[in-house]
Design goal:
By secondary structure, the protein is α/β, with parallel strands linked by helices. It contains 17 helices and 19 strands. Among the domains are: 156 residues, 2-Layer Sandwich (Aconitase, domain 3), CATH 3.30.499; 161 residues, Aconitase, domain 3 (2-Layer Sandwich), CATH 3.30.499.10. It is globular and about 55 Å long.
Amino acid sequence: MPKTMFDKIWEEHLIRDYGDGFGLVFVDRQVLQELGAPWFDPLKKRGLKVPYPGYNFAVSDHSPQTLFAGRRAQELRVTSWTRAMRERSAEHGITHFDIDSPYQGISSIVAGELGIALPGATVTVYDSHGCTLGATGAAAWASGAGEVTQTLATQTALMRKPPTMRINIEGQPGAGRFELTTAKDILLHVIRKVGAGNAAGHAVELAGSAIRAMSMEERFTACNLGVELGSRTVQVAPDETTFAYLKGRKYAPAGANWDAAVKDWRALPSDAGAKFDREATLDVNGLEPQISWGISPGDVIGISERVPDPREAASAQERSRVEGALSYTGLKAGAAFEGTPVDFVFIGSCANNRISDLRLAAGLAKGRKVAGSVVAWVIPGSQLIKKQAEEEGLDEIFRTAGFNWGEPGCSMCGGQGNGFTETLKPGMRAVSTISRNFPNRQGRGSITHLASPAMAVAAAVTGRITDVRKI
C-alpha cells in the first residue's frame, strides 16, 4: 500500500501502539532553549539521569540581549535562564550552545545549519516554531513542558498520530523578479487561502513546483510559516537540494555513513498514489509581494490590494472579526494599504534571518538610508550566519544605511530579548519578518505587519508600507 512520508517516519519510530491513534515514538533529537531549564528538575527529584545525552541539545536564544550588549561584552548577554540551562546541561552531559559558543543562535536555525535535524528523523523542539526543521524531511514538532521532561527521561514522546495533509503549491511567483516575491510571500498567501488554523493538528507536506524550486533556506522559511496553519508538523520531501545542503554539516553523517544515509533518504518521499486525509492545490503564478494587514497570520493581502471592508465579509462572525482587527490596527476599511506610515522595521526571527535573507535585504539597502521616522533592526539567526554576513560586509551595508546590527537571538520576535524587554511601545506600527502578528506580539499595544525581508527594507527606507518593486 502506498505511504505518505509522514506515515513512513511514524512506522519507523513507533515503539508501542496504545490504540485510538495514540502511540509511543522514539525521538531521535530533542532541541531545547534556555526557558526549558526547569523541566530538568523533575528528573533530579526522581533521581534520574538523561539516558541519551548525545541525542539532546540546548541553545540560548530567547532571553539574551540582541542589541548593543554584544558590542560591549558577551558576558552581558548572560541571564538567569542561560545560567540555569548551562548548569542543567553540564549536569546531564548535554551539548549546550550558550551565548559564548560559536554555534549559538535560534534553536530552529542552529539545528538546521548544524545538521542536527536530518531527513526521516523525529525531532522535538521546545519552541512553537520547531516545524521549521521539517524542511530537511524530518518530522519535527513543538513540545510542551511535560513532554520535554518525558523525552529527557526516556527519549520518547507519547502522541496521537496526526492526520495528513498535502498542500501542492504550483507556479512561479512574481513577474520575472522572483527574488522580490519570496518564500515568505508564498506562505503568507497559502495561510490566507487555506486559513490560519485550518490545518490544525495535521502533518502537513508542502509539495509542488514552487516548493521544489526553493533553496533550502527558503524551505526553512516555508515550513516555519506552515505552523500558522495550525499544523503539528510541516515537511518538505528530501531531494538533491536537501542532500547538497546537509553534506558536511557538523552533525550530519560522513563517509560511508553519508552514502548509506542518502540511500535511505531517497526512499522517504511519499509514494505515488499515497492517500492524504486532506489535500489542497494553490497556484502562485505571478504572485505579488504579500503583507499582513490584521491580527492573524491569515489576514494577508497583496501589496496592491486595499484594506478589507468588513461589509464584504462572508458571515456576521467574520464581519465582527474584521472590524476588531481594523480597530486594533487603526486601518480604514477599503483604503489603500500602501503608503501607511511605519515606526519600526524588524528583520530577524527564525522565519527570515538566514544568510540569503540578509543578502537580499542588504542588496536593497545598499546606497539607501533608513527614513528618519523609522528605527530598524537587523538580527542574524546564529553566530555562524553573523560571522558569514560580516565577512561579506553585509553588516557595514546595514549600518551605513542606518540599520542597527545585532547579536543572534529571538529578540523582537515576541519581545523576548534582554530578559523580555526588547519590545515596541504602545501604538508603534512595525513591519516585521516574523511569523505572527497577534495583538501585543511585539509589545503591549504594538501593531505588527508580516512581510518578507525585501518588503521590510522598502518600508524602512521610505518610512511607509511600500511595494518593494517600486524601489
